[in-house]
Structure formats: structure tokens, C-alpha cells
Records
---
Amino acid sequence: MYFIKLIFKNVFRAKLRSSLTIVGLVIAVLAFGLLQTVVDAWFAGANAASAARMVTRNAISLVFPMPVYYRDRIKAVPGVKAVSHSQWFGGIYIEPKNFFPQFAVDADNFFEMYPEFIFKPEELLAFKRDRQGAVVGRKLAEQYGWKVGDVVPIRGTIFPGNWQFTIRAIFDGKDETTVTRQFYFQWNYINEFLLKRFPRRADQIGVFTIEVTDPGRVADIARAIDAEFKNSLAETLTETEKSFQLGFVAQSEAIVVAIRVVSFVVIIIIMAVVANTMAMTARERLAEYATLKALGFSPGFVAALVFGEAMMLALIGAGIGILLTFPVAQGFAASPAGAAFATFNVSASTVWLQVASAVLVGVVAALIPAFRSANIRIVDGLRHVG
Amino acid sequence: MTEAANTLVEIRHLAKGYTRGGQAVPVLENITLDIARGEFICLMGPSGSGKSTLLNLIAGIDKPDSGMLKVDGEDITRLSEGELADWRASNIGFIFQFYNLMPVLNAFENVELPLLLTNLSKAERRQRVELTLALVGLGDRMEHYPNELSGGQQQRVAIARAIVTDPTILVCDEPTGDLDKQSANDVLAILRQLNGEMGKTIIMVTHDAHAAEAARRLVHLDKGELIGAPAAD
Ligand SMILES: Nc1ncnc2c1ncn2[C@@H]1O[C@H](COP(=O)(O)OP(=O)(O)OP(=O)(O)O)[C@@H](O)[C@H]1O
Ligand SMILES: [Mg+2]
């Protein structure tokens, strides 16, 4: 008790210095936690992907389409249970900054392949019946205050024109890892428009989504599908939805690595800051430590005082930093930038990493000052007075 | 026989030097001195003559280069660092020129500090601390922090801290060096009382002739040697 009290009072002796050090720690731990959460969120989408779903796209690149008639030939490949298709729309809602993903999909069976989207059956039916109908995820609807029946205008970029969609259904996610920030409507609607205005662009599709009978055989089935279109005009590349998603992540692998590196650099910097604080503090207290040793206290006791002080400093900073991580992460998730992620939750492992780095900062920062203070010759330490 | 039994500190041919800039600087050379139990001895001498050095050797916070230094029959030059620390805790009370109190602890806690190294219970510690602070006239200042006390009061807290463990010897390095005349007199009066009424052995270093009057015996140190101090009386 006495010991803890002594340490606690020592921490707040140089109020300005301690406060600044704690502020630094708070920012470092907060930054570290947020960066870790970004990395987590990056992979969350891929991890939530179903292993039983596969995706077929143009082998050259995702931006090149495939003829929609491929669908029937894919369906005929053994092991394929169902096929649906979707097309990236890339339109603008009022302003470009209001970004959310929009897909033109096959209304007939697309959502049957996504059991993680929870619909009211009558709403889904209403969507299927309305050529200009749209389906939106819960988070997206909440973001713009949309209700069923609202009309949403979207300006086309890839598909020119001013489009109007009526919201017929709002779906919830099965759990928090399910993305509910997308906007879906009927592919037939835009395809009819293309047939009339740009017939050469009609009957093309970006992605086929495939459900297989046996998830254990996805590799064989993928090979069979791609073999089907070998040497044709648009060769295909089929992979699981998960590796399809991870492909997106891999494209940004360098960014993820950079984020990781930065988060650890932040910790190393704060380590230097706290070490400097502890070195200054210990130097000022040499006479006190020498006095304690003269009174008969052991070098270990003095070392423990220095360690305790660094540790308390680090843990106070980390504690506040960790507590702040949650509301700040929540605020980020609610912001337009956060809309890019399905989930932006601070994981338990992130919190443990924050605690561990705070402990590491405390230990490393105290190491040299503690050793010096503990081993100071009493007569030298006492000469520091006056 | 009785003389020998009464000798508390026995110093023989003690030498101590420092190396400064690669050069050996002798500070104490061939010091021989006996201090009897219950003595109040004052070490005087010019600045740099080695008074503090000698006091530190006797107090066991520094080690001599050669010679013998026995306290209460024990040759403390042979103790290890750890043994020496334990020995100091039970045998030496320190009083410094600048008090050396812990600024974050109040008077009570400062005095209690050395008792944490004993196995006294909390209640026993409290009783002792209160008694000791009352003895130095600060029974009503127990909750005060050092920066809320005058220099003289701080030095009295330091005296309380030095005597609370009931040590064999009190070592005082210029205990009045930083005090005004009145406070100095208070401190000296307490020291004399501790010596006269409680039989505490006190070794004091001072520049102040007035302070020296409080002592029963004067020893002069000059250029590392004792002057006019018979080995034992
Ligand atoms: N740790 C040390 N390193 C080097 N030299 C030292 C050290 N301690 C003391 N000295 C030197 O030893 C000599 C004696 O020092 P000491 O402190 O014992 O003198 P003193 O008689 O107490 O002086 P003062 O009256 O000024 O306190 C001085 O020349 C001093 O510079
Ligand atoms: Mg001195």
C-alpha cells in the first residue's frame, strides 16, 4: 500500500511532464489500436465470405465483362448447384462523396445464394415484382434515412443516364460480420435500357456467383468451369468467394504492411519519449534514492520504485488510450470513410496488444534508469543535494 | 577492560582516497580514533579536509581503502553491500545538512519509512512514530509535508526519522548548516537531550563553532589527518 502510494505520488510530482507523457501515451495507444482495427477490418470481409460460393470473372481483369449466356454452360458443369450473376454499377447518389457499392443482380435467385442477408419474405417478393425496385442493406438505409417505398435517384457513370429506383426491401445481416451497406437492383432493368440504346454493350455480365453442391470440391469445379471457356473470346477465372475477396485485400497488401509498420513505429517512438521522461525523473531523484539506500533499503527496492513509476505512467496512458479506442472506432465506423468496412470493431486481441505494448513501453523505458538508480553509490547520490 | 568494553567505534590506520581524472587523490590518511559509547563528538576542519568522508565511512555508506573500522566490535569493512545495508538500518541514524526527506511523504510517513524495514506491526509503527515526533516537538505536524514545514521543523522530522529505529549511533553532517540561529539552537538542544538523557552516541560534523559547543569532545581534521586527538581517552 505504502509502496503503491509512494509510486503514485511520484508519478504526479512533475505534473506538466507527467501529463504530457501520458497524453503522448494515450495518443500512441489509441493510434496503435485504431491501426490494428483497420487491419482487422480489412480481412473481416474475406473471413466472412462463404466457402461454398465461388466467383467466376473474366480472366484478364475484373473490368472486362463476359457474355451472359455463359451462365447456362456454367450451370451444366457437374457439381454446380446454382448460378446467379451481378454487375458493378458504380453510380453517384447526389454527390460522389456519397459512395456505396451498387450492383445490378439477377433478381430471380441472387439473394437465395446469400442466406446471410435476412429479408422479410414479402419485401423480397415485392422487389422481384418491381423492375425498378431496389434492395438496400440496413446500415446503408440507416445512413441515408431510407425507408421501403423511398425513391432513390442515381446518376450512372458506366451506364449513362439518371436512374430512379424504388426501395422495396431492406435486409439485415445474419451477424455483425455481414456487410449491409450495399445497394442492389434488377440487372434486367439496365439490360433492357442497353438493348435499346447501346445494343453492343447489352447481355454482358461482370461476375457469376456459383453455389456448389460439395464445398470440398471447389478446386476441381473451378478448374472444370475455366476449362469450359478455354480459348473462347472471354476466358474465365473461377475462385472461391473468399480468395476473390482476399485478392482485393492482396492488392492493398502493401498498405496493410505499411499500416502495421506505422503502428509499431508509433510504439517505438512513445517508448523513447517515456524512457526520456524516466531518465530525467530518475536523475532528479538520485539524492532521494541514495537516502533510501542509506536508510537500509535495498537496490532492488529502488529499482522497483523506478519500474513502478514507469509502469504506472504507461498503464494510466494505456488505460485512457484503450478506453478512447472504442468511441473513436465507433465514430470512424459511422463516418463515410468507415463505410468501406463491414465491421470496424475493436477486437479483444487488439486490446491485449495495446496492454502488452504499454507494459513493454514501461519496462523498456525503466530499464536503464532503474539500473542506474539502484546501483548509484550512496555518497555520490547524496552529493546531488544542494 | 572497562575502557575497551566502552569503546563503540574503533578506527585504526584508516585510509581513503578518490581517483579524479585518472589521478589518485588521497583524502584520509592513517586515521586512528576511538569513540566511546554515549559520546557526543564533533568533527571540525576546513572544507575539503575529509570530514564527510570519515563520517560516511563510520556510517557504512562508503568503504575505506585500507585500515580497520569496528563498530560495536564488528569490523564493518568486511561486510558485503547487502549486509551493510541491514547493518545501517539497525545501527545508524542519519541526519543530513539538507534534511533529505521524501517530498511526497508527510512528516508521519517520512518518520515511518525506516520502520518499514523492521517487522513491527502497523499499530506498533504508528505508536513509535507518534512518540518520536512528539519528542522532537512536532506532534501536531504529523500530516504536514516537507514543503509545508520550516527548515528547522524539517530537520526535526529528519531527527525523528533518524532515532525512530533506536540506532546505536547518530551521524550528523552539518545538521545546522542550512538553518537560522534559532532553529539551529532547537536542533542542537534536541541532539544534546538525546545524548544526555538517552545516552545516544552522536558523531557530528560542523563548521559552526557554536554548534561545536554542544559536543562533549572536539576532533580536528586537516588535510586528511587528525590533529590533537589522542587515539582514545
Ligand atoms: N565521490 C568523490 N569523488 C571524488 N572526490 C571526492 C568525492 N567525495 C569527496 N571527494 C573529495 O574528497 C575531499 C574531501 O571531501 P569531504 O566531502 O570529505 O570534505 P569535507 O571536509 O566534508 O568538506 P566540506 O566541509 O566542504 O563538506 C574533497 O577534496 C573532495 O573533493
Ligand atoms: Mg562535508
---
Amino acid sequence: MPAHSTDPLLHPEVRQASILAYGAGFVASTVFMAIALVITLGRVLPYLGLLAAISALAMLALLAQVVLLFRLDLSETQLWKTVSLALVIPLFVLSIGLTGWMFHTLYPRTMLHFMAVQGSGSMM
Amino acid sequence: MSLVHLQGSWTPWLGRLTLSVILYHNGIVDGAFVFAAVTGIVILGVITYYRKWGYLIREWITSLDHKKIGVMYILIGLVMMFRGFIDALMIRTQQMMADGPDSPGHLQALHGYLPPYHFDQIYSSHGTIMILFAVTPILVGLMNLIVPLQIGARDMAFPYLNAVSLWLTAAGAGLVMASLFIGDFSHAGWIGLIPLTELPYSPGVGVDYWMWAIQIGSVGTTLGTVNLIATIVKMRAPGMTWFRMPIFTWTALSTNIIGLTAFPVLGVALALLGCDRYLGTHFYTAGLGGNLMLFTDLFWIWGHPEVYFLVLPAFGIISEIIPTFSERPLFGYITMVAATFAIAGISWSVWLHHFFTMGAGPDVNGFFSVATMLVGIPTGVKVFNWAFTLYRGRLRFDTPMLWAVGAVFLLLVGGLTGMMLAIPPINYTIHNSVFVVAHFHCMVLVVAFSIFGAIAYWFPKVFGFRLDEHNGKRVFACFSLGTFLVFAAMFALGFMGMTRRLDYLADPHWKPLLIVEEIGVFFYCVACYYFFRMLHVSIRDRAKNRVGADAWGTGRSPEWIARSPVPFYNFAATPHFNALDEAAWRRGQGLSDVAPRDYEPIATPKNTIAPPLIGALAFGFGFGMVWRIWWMAGLSLIAIIGVVILRSFATETEHVISAEQIRSMETTGSSVGIVTDHISPPVAEAEAFL
Ligand code: HEM
Ligand SMILES: [Cu+2]
């Protein structure tokens, strides 16, 4: 391996860094997450509305981090990282999707609340 | 402080810590304490007496050399494995003694010799230690050691990060050990049975120890996965194309992709539990909007991939050992790579088979049942590939080969019983019975067998001499006999209805089989004895067992072209690769002994005290959180950030060895391996920085 004797400050990733973007990324993601916390604690929205709202806020926080903090794009320096992030999406869909499906079939069988709604409750 | 209701006292300076948590009135714990304290004092005393502190700190603790880090990982893992083994011995003995209403009680126990509260801590620590602090670190250590050698690299992509990972793992292991003497460990199983882990049901510090130890250790493991992936993708020497990569490196790549994607889920699952326990939230509580099934779900989203994180490198090890001792190339290299990635991919969609009985609908259980059984196909491909490699090979049964072949047999038993468990109607009858325990022990023993095989196989590469074969074979024989006795009996007990995690067993008919298991454990003890004797004899007779670059004479993959013991710079000149199985190719071409004509300067990373410091501070942070000593946790965290920032100002992080120095070290054949009695050059240079 060649000696890494070059100045680390010349590294392309380091060249991309900017205090402004870091600050903005930090503030933006903190704000989005704080809003999510507040509306969860406040219980102002109905169940589905709350779910939609915090999902949207999570997406925004993620975007703020991807764009402002990590500065991911399709340039040569960042391509590998962008691709790695994209590759995680199937896992995301898989784990959250299957979990959702599982709970969807689990609640009617195990949760008293749903048993009351559905009348007879357990099928097993 | 008032966010959650804490039992017992709390003071700002000491948190929940009081003198009474240290002083027990339990013979077993006192015994363990005395044993550990005496051992510790003896070890520290010996180091001091022989004035080895400087050596240890200079050559090992501050080292960034991937081989030394690998060896330290393996040492930590072996020590923890020994501790986990003592736990197992205690569990088995308690169950044998506490069978039937007439079984006598000793010490403070009604039956057997361990009261339930203590027994529960022992099986919880056994599982946590064996999976997360024994087998995982050993495998990570092996990958650290071998992967750079196999791809012709000088070190890992990020040597400093590598050391940070090691010391975070050490901090986690340290927390588990500390719980033995200061407070308790969790009694809620290695999987953290929910809602038992919630504060109202586990008001002590046990669950906190479990949670923070895993959390800190797994940050280390996650950082390690990034490092290994980057190393494999970016650091391959010229000619090392993707499809010339040795199988062990392929399995390392797939395993670390699994680790990188799965460990964060564990981190989140535990962090939410932490929110419940520290901030009074209701993620997993039974009421107030909490959902306790969510913990089980999240835990296994990590947990199942984790078991493949363990087994894939083991498959890689088997795939390295079998060709070497069959004197043939591995059968079906491409299918082996494909099977590795198929297993890794499928491992993400099977986790629900750990809770078929929770009550999800038949479609869901059916889906996960089929997905689970699909894993059998690529696993079967691997087994056939190994069988075809053995077929008509010129077989030699040196110790590594014995372990590898033993592992394949265990894989069959574990895999087939896994298939049984994957069928929901069967699972409903044997879930949470010791049949499950026997299944996964066969599987994790595949890993353990491979580890012992790997240690025997690669030891000469790292240290320059072989382990003693005579005692090594005895370790194998006793270990295998113990495995057979314990787990054959355990499968039978599972069918007889014995459930997991029992401190008292109601059915006296189980007694004979429990005694068989205890006899099996006795053979494990004998295996331990021979293991230590093997180390002793090997080191004593090392001059007799010296080896050259190709320690077994029939090595195939590239690590066998490096000198044994591997010099700290790995390869005197950057190797160029010409074929899959480079060492075998060079042997075939008569190029094994060719020395490079020209040497170039080599840069190696300088030592630094930062990683062990970060590890120590992480321990302080974890300890502070466990005992709710906020100032301690806070200061440690700030100090960690400070150390990281300070270190980023270090500019002279590399030490360059001139071409002449390399030439002289290569031509005089002087020992520049990892155990030397003189100060190795990168260290001598770095002294100023310490
Ligand atoms: C052919 C592949 C495999 C199949 C079909 C399989 C199937 C299963 C099933 C269905 C269970 C759940 C049993 C229950 O709790 O009712 C289980 C548990 C388990 N398996 Fe496997 N398994 C396989 C491979 C492995 C491997 C490779 C490992 C580890 C190296 C492993 C480790 C475990 C562990 C640790 C548990 C239980 C954890 C616990 O509840 O404490 N399995 N397996
Ligand atoms: Cu599983």
C-alpha cells in the first residue's frame, strides 16, 4: 500500500466539508425530531395522522442528514456511499414491511382492544 | 432523577452504589470473587516482577498492527469463553442436583446449590458472554488477522478505528465481568425477555449491565464491520481480483455486510429499552401505548442475522482447512461464493421463526417457515462442496482438519433440527424446550469447532511454530465426546418435555439423562485441561515446531506466501497475484522461494494511546450509566469526544521503514514477528508520542 503521506486536508471528502452545511444539517435534523417529539407528547393528532406526520418528519430529518451532513451525491468521491445507502432500502422495506404485516395479523389475535372491536377475538 | 421510580437509595456522588452491593453473603459469589481476585493479582504481580508493563503497553496495548489487534481480540474472546464455560458448568451441575422434589438443597438454595435469582443470572451471562463477548470477538480477531494477509494488504483500511473497535469490545466485556463483583447481572436471559427487563420487574442494575455492555461492545463491532468491508473493497493488492479472493475473505465480506446492517437494529432496540428504564417512556411496557412484542421483533431482526454473522466466517474457515488437508482445490468455488451471499441475503427475512408461538397469523408463520427452510439450500450446497473436495483427496488428519470435519457433522445435526424447528406445528410443541437449546448449541459449536480449527491452522502463520499436535488431538477428542454426551441427551430431554432455563426440575425421570450431560461437561473440563497443556507444551517446545512460510506444506491461499511469523509489515514487497489459490499456483510454478529484487519504503501506522483510553472511558461511561452516577457518565462521554478531537490533530501517524531496513530484515531472517524480545521499529519511533 502506498504511504498515506498526502495532507489529509486535501482529501476530497474533507474539501467538501463546510461549517455552514454542518450547522444547517444539525439544526434541521434536531428541529424535525423535536417537532416529532412534541406532537407525540401532545397527542393532538389522531392515530393515523400521527403516524403519517412522524414518518414524514423522519424522512425530512433523514434527508437533512444525507444532503447537509453527509453531502451524499453521485460524484466520484461519494458514489460508493450513496450506493450503500440505496442498498439499505430493500432491507428497510423488508424489515418494516414484514413487521407491519406480522403486527397486523397479531393484534386481532392477542390484543384485548382489538378483541373488543372484533367481538369473538382469538382465532387460535 | 425523578423521571422513573427507583428502588433503594441514590446519592449524587455515588448514584445507586452502596457498600452493600459489593459485600455478598453467598459462598459461590465470594468464591468467584476470591478466585478472580487472586488470579488477577498473580497476573499483575508476574507482569510487574518481570518488568513487562512497558513491553505490554508499548508493543500491545497501544498497537495499531492488525495482527496484534487480532491476537488481542482472540485473547479477550478466549478468556471470556472460559468464563462462559464456568457458567455452563454451574448451570449443568445445578440442574443435575435439583431434579425431583426430594433433591436436597445446599448453601441458600431449596434444591441444588444455586438459588433461582443467582441461577437466572448465570444462564443470562452465559448466553450473553458466549455469543457477544467470546465467539464474536474471536471471529472478528481472526478476520482481522487473516483478511489483510489474504488480500496482500499491509494493514486494515483504518488501523486506528480498528484499535478503537477492539477497546470498545474490551470495555463491554469488562462491564460484564464487573457485574460479577459489583451488583448483579441481568436475570432476563441473553435475549432480554420482555417485559421482565422493564424497570418495575427488574428494579436492580442487572439489566442495565447487560444493556450497556452489549450496547458499548456492539458499537465496537459495528465500527469493525465498516473497517473490514472497506479493507476488502479497497485494499486488495494488484492482481487480487474479486474472483481470486480466498473463500474466507468472501465470507468475511458477507458477514460484515450482515453485521453492518443488523447491529444498528440491536442498538436501537436497546436504546428504546434504555429510554423506558431511564426516562420513563413506554416503548415496550404492557400498557400506556407500549408494545412489548416490538422488542422481541427488533431483537430478532438483529438476532437472526447475528447467528449468520457467526456461522459464515466459520464456513469460510472450514472452506480453507478442508482443501489444505485434502491437497485439492476447493470444489465449486463460484457456487461457494454464491451460497455465502444467498445465506446472507435470506438471513434477513427469517427472524420471525424465533417467535412463531407469539400468535401472528398462519400466513405470516407460513411465509417465515418457507423462508427459513430456503436457507437449507445454499447450506446444502456448501456441505456437498466440502464433501466433493474431500472425495478422492489425499486426506491428512492434522488437528485443524479434525475440527473442520467435526464441524461439518455438527452442521448436519444442527441444520436438520433447525429444519424441524422451522415447521410451525412442530415448533409449537418444542419451542422453549431444551430441544431448541440443543439445536442452537450444535450450530454455535460449528462455530466453536471452526474457531479451534482456525487457531491451530493459522497459529504457525502468526507465531512461527505449530501448536502441539499430540495434545491438540486430545482437546479435539475430549471436546467432541463432551459435545456428543451433552447434546444427544439434551435433544432427548427436549422431547421429554423439559423446558429451558429451569433452576428446579420437577420430573425425576430426567435424572439419568441429566447425569449423562454432567459426564459430558466433565469431558469438556478435560478438554480445557489439555488445551492449557497444549499451549504450555507448544511454547516450551517451540524450537522443535518451527515452520516456514507454508506451515502445512499444502497451503493454497495467499497468506501462506508471507513469512512465518508474519513480519509487522506483512509483505516485504507488495505482492502481485496471478491466480486463485496463489500459494498453490506459486508452488506449482516453482516460485515459492522467490525473493523480491527491489524493496520500497513501507509506511506502518504508529502506536497511539488514544484507543485504549477511549475504551477505558467507555467503560467509565457504561459504569456511570449502570449505577446512575451522572457526573461519571457525563465526564467520560465528554472525555471520549475530547480524545477523539485531540487525536485528529496528530499529523505524524505513520512511520516509514526504509528500503534498506527491509532488505536487511528480510535477508538476515531476523525475527520481526509479533512476539519479539527487542522493540519493533514502529514502536521505537512512536515512543515520543506516548
Ligand atoms: C439451517 C439453518 C437453520 C435453521 C433452519 C434454524 C432454525 C431455527 C429455529 C426455527 C429456531 C427457533 C426455535 C424456537 O425458539 O422455537 C432457532 C433457534 C436458534 N438458532 Fe437456529 N436455525 C438454523 C441455523 C442456525 C445457525 C447457523 C445458528 C448459529 C450459529 C443458529 C442459532 C440459533 C439460536 C442461537 C437459536 C435460539 C436463540 C434463543 O432462543 O435463545 N441457528 N433456529
Ligand atoms: Cu434464527
---
Amino acid sequence: MTGLTNMASGDVAAEGLMVKAEQVCKNFGHVQVLKGIDLEVQQGEVMCVVGPSGSGKSTFLRCINHLEKVDAGRLWVDGHLVGYRQRGDKLYELREKEVAAQRRDIGMVFQRFNLFPHMTALQNVMEAPMLVKGESKDAAKARAEQLMERVGLSDRMGNYPSQLSGGQQQRVAIARALAMQPKLMLFDEPTSALDPELVGEVLDVMRDLAREGMTMVVVTHEMGFAREVGDSLVFMDGGVVVEQGVPREVLANPQHARTQAFLSKVL
Amino acid sequence: MSAGQTETRTGAIKAVPVRHPGRWVAAVAVAVLAAMLVNNLVTNEAYNWAEQLKYLFAPAVLEATFNTIWLTVAAMVGGVILGILLALMRLSANPLLRGAAWLYIWVFRGTPLFTQLLIWGNIGALFPTLGLGIPFGPQFVTAQTNALYSAAAAAALGLVFNEAAYMAEIVRGGIQSVDAGQQEAASALGLTRVQTLRRIILPQAMRVIAPPTGNEAISMLKNTSLVVAVPFVELTFTVQNIYSHTYQIIPMLVMACIWYLFLSSLMMIGQHYLERHYGKGYAR
Ligand SMILES: Nc1ncnc2c1ncn2[C@@H]1O[C@H](COP(=O)(O)OP(=O)(O)O)[C@@H](O)[C@H]1O
Ligand SMILES: [Mg+2]
């Protein structure tokens, strides 16, 4: 791998690679939650991540945008080392502003939506472009309106999150992430907190996004979505990637006993 | 089942309500007490309403009331700003900052405000000169404390420093009440810590902070009467001055209460609108 590594900055130059994880480890206290994750996500790829609760899926996703610090290994997004700068063989932590700048390009959607409850749906979508990118109010509003229309909520722009259903809130959350025009979208169980009849409307928005070529890493229990929309499927258990491949094949014909046991429970 | 009972079981219910004799007894007792109070206010000469009216808008009383108002405003504004700073220190990852804030709160909440105000009034004895310069090194400018420092400043500072200790705990509780997912969502969007605090965390914390802050402000209005310790002239001090030569003690004290009630009522209205503003977006 060192052949690809630019020693001046620690960035890797690999055409078309959006995420590259190399032996990523993460500990909480004495517990090792990620035990050497190796993964590659190509530009435009939709990677679905499945696995039992507590297997480290959320933690891995949070490492990708540096909400968690990686303890060992390396992680690159769009060729840039996440959270650090490399000079020689020394790593330097990035300053807060630099980390924030890296995060702009990575959108994240949470299981519990995490909309800002004191702002209307439209204000939720406008906030980050205005604060982070210094966009004018008019420009931010115009794009926020477009995005609200795109997620099918043009009639809900003035509503506060508490006045929206879970499915509507999650669609606003997707619009909010898209407003920063990210290169990569991370979804952490985006439909797990939803009533069953509301799951479809969120998956529809995500399907459209995938069709438009967005690179996505999706932690999900929706095997139908993984099979239909996913380009690759990763099965995690106990902080390691147990198995990965084309979703249809992994789901139909899992190779590992742990994958088989998990799939037999959820399918 | 007799024929009379079988109207229809699906129709609207017409039941005999439960009687509450205790409520009637309580209501009568309250009504009697209220009548006694009104009777006392009207017939008891000792209130001397005419005397009160004479002084209600007297220049000395108006000036004292003005002092009470600005002291309250200054103490609350200063207390809130310093309180936010202390709350952030308390929540800091830096143990030195956390310890300093804890020590501050411990001292200022653990000693009486009246005693603190006495000290502020005599601060010149503790620090005869004030200077600007290098700590433990040379001073560039120095001045006599008593020349820089007025009774008004002593009163305001005393109230601000005390209030900040209480506000710090209120603000800290407010910040901690905000869901951790809010910080995460803001970080994921690329907001810096300061931006997140200012635009996301504090506005939500305000919903929790506003009601007790309103109560603090109303307490402060009344606590300004303690700056007599400095000493500084405010409403209670002034009516004491007046009755010390008119001997109309009760009329002057009741008149002061009327002013305090009027001002605290205004503040309660303000508190209502403040709570409504920061409650936006929350289902009631
Ligand atoms: N902030 C944290 N502190 C301590 N332990 C944590 C923290 N976050 C996650 N964990 C632990 O790490 C493990 C993996 O968690 P997580 O990544 O959330 O799993 P998943 O998303 O696959 O359910 C769990 O055992 C969890 O308890
Ligand atoms: Mg999870």
C-alpha cells in the first residue's frame, strides 16, 4: 500500500476510490470494538453493511467522518487521510477547523434523525450551508426548497420537526445532509426507528439518490433494499468484516456460519 | 334488570356527579379571609394611603426605583454572561478550568449575599490600588481603588458575581439537557464547536434555562434591597430614609411593596413571552 501513499501528506492517490479503510481499530476503554477493518468503497458505489447489534457498524460509520478517533490503522476519504496529516512517518492531529472541513463533504443520516427541533424543516436544511459555507440566505433558501421538493416535502417546509412524522423527519434529515453537497453519504439504520408503513418513503428517497450516482454506505436491516440497490454487501460481527460480496450472492449463499446464522434470523 | 334502566347502553352517559363538600368549605373560608383583608385595607388608618400617594412618585422614590431597575438589569445581564462562561468551564475537558469554576461556585453560593456586598463595599481595604501590568511583575498603570470605584459599581459587581454562581448551575443543567445527537448532527454537517454551541445547543438549552432565569430575575429585583450593605441607594433604603423623619413606617414600606409588585408583574409578563419564544418547535 505504501506505493500509493503520498509521503508528504499521507494522502493516497487512487482513481475512483471514495473510502479506503486499512486495518481500522477502535477501542472504548479496554474493549476493542473494531478489530482491523479493511474495506474499499468505489465512487458511486452503494455499500450496505449488516450485522448483529453491537458488532461495530455504527462505530465504523462514525470513524469515517471522524466522529470517533481511529486508534490504529488508516482511513481515507476521497484520497485524504481522515483526521490526521502525515509528515514523514509521523501523524499530526488535524485542527478542529480542518476536521470540520473534511466533514462538510460527508453527509450523515442518523437512526433517530437528530433534526434541530428549534428550527423549521426549511431552516434545518439551510443552516449548515449558511454557517459552514457562508452561503447567502437567498441562495441557501433556494437550494433548500429544491431539496425539500426532491424528498417530497415541499408542503412541509414551515413545519417544526415535532409536527412531522418519523418518515418525514428522516427525509428532512436527508435533505439537510444533501444541502452540503457531499461526495459521500453515510446512513446509520435510517429506517430502524420508523413505523413499518413509513419505511418505504425513506427507502424511495435513498433509492433515487443511489440512482443519481451518490456514493453511499448504508447500515441497514432492510435486506430487500440491500439486494435491490446495494452494489456490495458487508457482513460485520464482533468488530470484523466476516464476509462481503455482491448482495444477491451473499444473501442467497452465505459462506460463513456466522453469516448464515445471522441471515436465518433476519430473512 | 328493570325496564327503567335500559335506555340504551350506547347513548351518551348522564351520571350523577360526585359531590365535593370539602371544596365548598374551603371556598367559604377563603372568601371570608379575603373580605377581612379588604375591610382591613379600607378601614385601617395605619396604611395612610394619602401619605403613600404623596411619595409614590416623589423624585427621591423615582430615582431609587430607577436604581433598583438598572441594578436588576445589570446584575442579570452580567450574571447570565458570566454564568454561561462558568458553565462552559464546568463542562470543559480541562480539569483546571473545571476546578476553577467549581471553586468559584462553591465560594459564591456558600456565603451570604449580604456579607458579600459588605465586602464589595470595603474592597478598597483589601486592594488599596488597582493596576494593569504583568502578573507578579511591573505594573504599567495603577490607580487608587476608591477613586475608580463607586458605590454603584460595588453594588452591581456584588450582585453580578453572586448571580453568576447560580446562573452557572442553571446554564449547565440546560446544556446537559440537550440530546447528544444534536452535537453529533451538527459536527457531521461541519459546524465548529463554537457554531454548534451558539446556533444549536444554547438555543435549545434556553428552553430549560429560561424559566429558572425568570425566577432568578424576580429574586434579583428583591435582592437589590440588600445593596444597602455597600451602601448604595435603592428603593428600600430610600423609603427607610423617608420614614426616619416622617415616622410613617408602614405606609412607606407598603408603598415600596407596591413598586416591587408592579415591577415583578412586568417581569412575569416578559418571562411568559421569553418562554414562549424558546418553546418554539416543541409540542405542548
Ligand atoms: N461511546 C462508547 N463508549 C463505550 N462503548 C461504546 C461506545 N459506543 C459504542 N460502544 C460499544 O461498542 C460496541 C459496538 O457498538 P456499535 O458500533 O454501536 O454497534 P452496532 O452499530 O453494530 O450495533 C457495542 O458493544 C457498544 O456498547
Ligand atoms: Mg448501530
